UniProtKB/TrEMBL annotation:
<dbReference type="InterPro" id="IPR051820">
    <property type="entry name" value="FAD-binding_MO"/>
</dbReference>
<dbReference type="GO" id="GO:0004497">
    <property type="term" value="F:monooxygenase activity"/>
</dbReference>
<dbReference type="InterPro" id="IPR020946">
    <property type="entry name" value="Flavin_mOase-like"/>
</dbReference>
<keyword id="KW-0560">Oxidoreductase</keyword>
<keyword id="KW-0503">Monooxygenase</keyword>
<comment type="similarity">
    <text>Belongs to the FAD-binding monooxygenase family.</text>
</comment>
<dbReference type="Pfam" id="PF13450">
    <property type="entry name" value="NAD_binding_8"/>
</dbReference>
<keyword id="KW-0274">FAD</keyword>
<keyword id="KW-0285">Flavoprotein</keyword>
<dbReference type="InterPro" id="IPR036188">
    <property type="entry name" value="FAD/NAD-bd_sf"/>
</dbReference>
<dbReference type="Pfam" id="PF00743">
    <property type="entry name" value="FMO-like"/>
</dbReference>
<protein>
    <submittedName>
        <fullName>Flavin-containing monooxygenase</fullName>
        <ecNumber>1.14.13.-</ecNumber>
    </submittedName>
</protein>
Length: 507
């Protein structure tokens, strides 16, 4: 959905809740507010000219979900397409349908990139400064609560290492995050540098058009093949209807994914053998699985890559794609020279070398004139920051579908708003007063992109509401079923929760 604000009354500049980001997290939060707190005013600021976040930004060939859609989709809106591992345009359609069904379009302001946000304790409000992408206009918005649905990555730039000789290469070098519309790789020799989720998505998609595609990796990762269509889910939909089947399919998929994850932690050697054997069965007998698909680390120390219907392995088996495991010495005029002495000839080189992690959309936060440094804060229930009032953020799971977590955060946020309204509270602030609490990284994955960027994020604690556990069942207990009131929360009651602009008999 492109910018549809023209000719429509814009959302007010003063609201109860200001949501930053119209991707899957922000759309989910707005939908929950409409359903659970319909009396409250809200607006959504989106830096781009269209909604969808990741699913609108990334345009590389074959972009798709790396989680099953019944759990990556919202809990309140069933996924109805036959494909469980879905193409990017199907996910974008799903998000646009959600916006239409919940009447969210009139609440979204496109083209506003949030630069800074400062909370005033005296006023009990956030003042948010944003720049419009097309006019350069600087605008201010005020809100009681700030909800950050900005995701985990820098949308402006992906990560590309410094490659010696890249300027000598006579072909074209592209990063998947900035895929050029005019790139024609028909019949050409393509080298994709990387072995993560983006690389294993690109390679089978490009292999059907390119002359040949080579996956160049420094070291292999775990790759798991899953059917693109879930036969059980599609059968249940026919028998029970979409809404009733949705609950059963989500429960099944959560249990299966959590089971694989827990087994990987408890029996890593067994799971390692099973995962590698699963790959070996899908490749030709002579293929060197030990070199190219046997990782040095245990399962789930890094995120497991999912490929639908084994499409990567089919492309390799058919000879349309190949894998080289080596280190790059330098780029040359005709390709890449490796440290082994081998040279890979290429017309196009794709640097699927990772993303850049960036907390909270690079927004400069402050409270009463004091800048907030995210690494100096501690995450409360993995959704609020110590010492920062009236702010909620949504960061999803790394070992399960992202949206399962952001859904729970939005639900708990609505419960928190209801609790505050019922008690006449205006502000809420997590307060960490335990000097002996050990603080640890927000994520514990060993992936390079995590290790490069996690130092910019809030820290987690090792006990109580300060833990960040990638465990859905535990988050259900504390976010959906647990109480809102908590000794770690400090509430103030200086005035009503609802914005002054909306007070009066109409409510």
């Amino acid at each position: 959905m492109k910018n549809t604000n023209a000719g429509r009354t814009s959302p007010p500049a003063d609201v109860d809740v200001l949501i930053v980001g119209a991707g899957i997290s922000g759309i989910g939060a707005a939908s929950h507010l409409r359903a659970l707190r319909p009396v409250m005013s809200f607006a959504v600021l989106e830096a781009r000219d269209s909604l969808g976040g990741t699913w609108d930004l990334f345009r590389y060939p074959g972009i798709r979900s790396d989680s099953d859609m019944p759990t990556f989709g919202f809990g309140f809106k069933p996924w109805t397409h036959r494909k469980s591992i879905a193409d990017g345009h199907l996910i974008l359609d799903y998000l646009q349908q959600t916006v239409a069904e919940y009447g969210l379009a009139e609440h979204i302001r496109f083209g506003y990139r949030v630069l800074s946000a400062e909370f005033s304790s005296a006023q009990g409000r956030w003042t948010v400064t944003a720049r419009h992408s097309s006019t350069g206009e600087i605008a201010e918005f005020t809100a009681r609560f700030l909800f950050l649905g900005t995701g985990m990555y820098d949308h402006d730039a992906g990560f590309t290492p410094e490659f010696a000789g890249v300027e000598d290469f006579g072909g074209r070098v592209v990063h998947p995050q900035h895929w050029p519309e005019d790139l024609d790789y028909t019949g050409k020799r393509v080298v994709v540098i990387g072995s993560g989720a983006t690389a294993v998505t690109l390679i089978p998609s490009m292999a059907g058009v390119a002359g040949h595609v080579t996956m160049l990796q420094r070291s292999p990762g775990y790759i798991f093949s899953s059917p693109a269509e879930d036969v059980i889910a599609n059968t249940l939909r026919k028998l029970l209807g979409h809404r009733r089947a949705h609950k059963a399919v989500r429960r099944k998929n959560i249990l299966l994914t959590r089971g694989v994850y827990k087994a990987s932690l408890r029996a890593p050697k067994l799971m390692r053998r099973l995962l590698i054997a699963h790959v070996r069965r899908q490749l030709p007998r002579h293929f060197d699985v030990d070199t190219h698909f046997t990782p040095r680390y245990n399962p789930w120390e890094q995120r497991l890559c999912l490929v639908p219907d084994g499409d990567l392995f089919k492309a390799i088996s058919a000879g349309r794609a190949s894998v080289v495991t080596d280190h790059i010495e330098r780029f040359t005029k005709t390709g890449i020279r490796l440290k082994s002495g081998q040279e890979l000839t290429a017309d196009v080189i794709v640097t699927a070398t990772g993303l850049v992690m960036s907390p909270f959309g690079k927004i400069r936060l402050a409270v009463d004139g004091h800048p907030v440094s995210p690494p100096e804060t501690t995450a409360y229930k993995a959704m609020m920051l110590s010492g920062v009032p009236n702010l909620v953020f949504a960061l999803g799971y790394t070992n399960l579908s992202w949206t399962l977590k952001t859904d729970l955060v939005s639900e708990h946020f609505c419960r928190l708003l209801g609790y505050m309204e019922a008690h006449g509270y205006r502000t809420v602030e997590p307060v960490l007063d335990d000097p002996y609490l050990e603080r640890v990284p927000y994520l514990n994955l060993t992936s390079n992109y995590v290790q490069r960027g996690i130092g910019k994020f809030p820290r987690a604690g090792t006990r109580g509401p300060w833990t960040v556990e990638m465990a859905y069942e535990r988050d259900v207990e504390r976010l959906r079923e647990g109480p809102v009131e908590d000794p770690a929360l400090r509430f103030t009651a200086a005035g009503p929760l609802l914005s002054e602009s909306r007070q009066g008999g109409a409510r």
